[in-house]
Write a structure and sequence with these properties.
single chain; 608 residues; mainly alpha; ubl conjugation pathway; coiled coil; NPH3 family
Length: 608
């Protein structure tokens, strides 16, 4: 059935009503003068009793209950849809032609329910007409269902009672699910080169849902989950709804409490966070989560909403950038950046790493004892990220030492291959906070592992006047050990290998397989970390060797090279003197000289 089947074209009654719209009174006049005036929301309608009581049970009861045969005035209160909806109902009672559309069907259904225009009083009454249009036209189309939902503003609670909202919400979800099934093949294209299937363009209804009020939108999304709409489409819809409804922070002035910031936006953010709580974490882009978190902090949403956003960010913190973490603080007389929020996100990340380790160790089977760890590379990324963040917040004079140290202490030791980034951040903090006591400086510098400083960082630390003496001595000591190790040809720390060997010996009978597996994971992690350190040290030595060779090439002049060549030629000449043939010739000459001397001595003795 099409929409054109729903204009009313009932036979005209004898009264032949018409509408006029004066400023104060709306009169439906005919050959017979009106005999009753109805007041609706401050507007009056001059009508006839008979057409009204023949179709409206409510008006019939009001006329009968008055027991006044000359009743000429009635007042209707709480009319859903107001005077406009009542005018349409009055037209229907008089048989005037008008068309039911998605814009007025909700108003007609609600005013018909209010006026009790059921089949008891006349067949094909307004309730039946509106229900037919809803079931045959509206719920069959996603667009029309959305239009009806948008028109229900101001019609509650009666729109809820007659079931318009529930039917349209379910219709949107069902039609969206059908749309994905039907158009799925059309939006899947085969790549000729790779032979893989790829999907492009988002669902067209994603943007259309943004016109709904937040409470209706929540119900639509919940219904979509039940009907099996794809999670990525739901996330796209959530993102588009947030971008549409959260454009800038709304501020209004209240004479009592001053400036009040976006009450409606606060409700929207809290509702969207509740919807996100049930979605897969990896499907929600991190940039969107950070944007929502910044808005939630500025609008002072509920603590639960902010904690949920922080939890979701913390679970994929390795994908964040430094700019994402630089969240301005909303508290007066506090540090420039919101350090507490980053601290909580880092706690969530560490919890995720520990959960990964516990899940792996729960197998307790050595067939899964591979070195690959889903969290090790993530921890290294987060370690570099946090070191950069510490360097950014360190110059803040209002940043307390306890907050600064709390972030440093959260990361495990294996999160940093070298401590150069941490050393840089600590040095900046010491420079920006000269009022720190000696004990506070020692406490802060103890967090730096002197053995994990590169050659350049160690040289800088050895000459740094801001560092405590104990740390400078420690740096010099480990540099001396490193130099001895390099000269003796030993690479790495022998004690480390001994510690690994001793810790990975025969399994004790008192140790459970799960504890032993966790110990082996720690040893594997330490081994990988030590190998990485050795690679870094080897690259540093190669760079130093290349630098020395280049300096030697640059410092040599042409004269030195000539002198070097001449010295080489002289050396070659000396070497030639000691060739085998020359040595034989010298030996024969010496023997001849010795024999001549002996013959002369014999002649002298015989002459004497």
């Amino acid at each position: 059935m099409s929409e054109s089947a729903f204009p009313f074209s009932a036979a005209k009654p004898a009264t032949s009503p018409q509408f006029c719209n004066p400023i104060t009174t709306r009169r439906i006049f005919s050959d017979v003068a009106g005999d009753i005036t109805l007041y609706v929301d401050g507007q009056s309608f001059l009508l006839h009793k008979f057409p009204l009581v023949s179709r409206s049970g409510k008006i019939r009861k009001m006329v009968m209950d008055s027991r006044d045969p000359d009743l000429s005035m009635l007042e209707l209160r709480g009319v859903p849809g107001g005077a406009e909806a009542f005018e349409l109902a009055a037209k229907f009672c008089y048989g005037t032609n008008f068309e039911i559309t998605t814009t007025n069907v909700a108003h007609l259904r609600c005013i018909a329910e209010y006026l009790e225009m059921t089949e008891v009083y006349q067949e094909k009454n307004l309730i039946a007409r509106a229900e037919t249009y809803l079931s045959e036209i509206v719920v069959q189309s996603l667009e029309k269902s959305l239009e009806v939902l948008c028109s229900c503003d101001g019609l509650r609670p009666i729109a809820e009672e007659v079931g318009i909202l529930d039917r349209c919400v379910d219709a949107v979800a069902i039609n969206a699910s059908k749309e994905q099934l039907v158009s799925g093949l059309a939006r899947l294209e085969c790549d000729d080169e790779s032979g893989k299937l790829k999907m492009h363009c988002q669902d067209w209804w994603v943007e259309d849902l943004s016109v709904l009020k937040i409470d209706i939108y929540q119900r639509v999304i919940a219904s979509m989950r039940r009907t099996g709409v794809r999670s990525d489409s739901i996330v796209q819809s959530l993102m588009h709804y947030a971008q549409t409804s959260l454009k800038g922070i709304e501020r209004r002035h209240n004479w009592e409490s001053g400036i009040v910031v976006g009450d409606k936006q606060r409700v929207i953010i809290e509702a969207l966070v509740d919807l996100l709580a049930t979605e897969n974490i990896t499907t929600v882009p991190l940039s969107f989560l950070f944007g929502m978190l910044r808005m939630a902090i500025e609008l002072a949403t509920s603590l639960g909403s902010r904690l949920e956003l922080e939890r979701r960010i913390g679970f994929q913190l390795e994908l964040a950038s430094l700019d994402d973490l630089l969240i301005p603080s909303s508290q007066p007389n506090d540090s420039v950046f919101d350090v507490d929020t980053v601290h909580r996100m880092l706690v969530n990340f560490i919890q995720r790493v520990e959960e990964d380790d516990s899940e792996d160790s729960s197998h307790c089977g050595y067939e899964s004892l591979s070195i690959k760890s889903p969290s090790h590379s993530s921890v290294l990324k987060v370690g570099r990220l946090i070191d950069g963040y510490l360097a950014e917040i360190a110059p803040d004079p209002h940043l307390s030492l306890s907050k600064f140290m709390a972030i440093i202490e959260l990361l495990p030791d294996y999160a940093r291959i070298i401590d150069d980034g941490l050393y840089r951040a600590v040095d900046i903090y010491l420079k920006a906070h000269p009022s720190l006591t000696e004990s506070e400086c020692k406490k802060l510098c103890k967090l730096i592992d002197c053995q994990k400083l590169s050659q350049e960082a160690a040289n800088h630390a050895a000459q740094n006047d801001r560092l405590p003496v104990q740390m400078v001595v420690g740096v010099l000591y480990f540099e001396q050990l490193r130099l001895k190790s390099a000269l003796s040809g030993n690479s790495g720390d022998g004690s480390f290998s001994q510690r690994i060997i001793s810790s990975s010996g025969v399994q004790s009978a008192a140790v459970s397989p799960r504890d032993n597996y966790a110990s082996l994971r720690r040893e594997n992690r330490e081994l990988k970390l030590e190998i990485t350190r050795m690679r870094v040290r080897l690259s540093e030595l190669e760079k130093e060797q290349a630098f020395m060779k280049q300096g030697m090439r640059d410092n040599r002049s042409q004269e030195h090279s000539k002198a070097f060549l001449s010295s080489i030629s002289r050396g070659i000449g000396r070497i030639a003197m000691f060739s085998p043939s020359q040595r034989k010739h010298q030996k024969s000459t010496k023997k001849a000289q010795v024999s001549d001397a002996k013959s002369r001595r014999r002649q002298r003795q015989s002459a004497s």
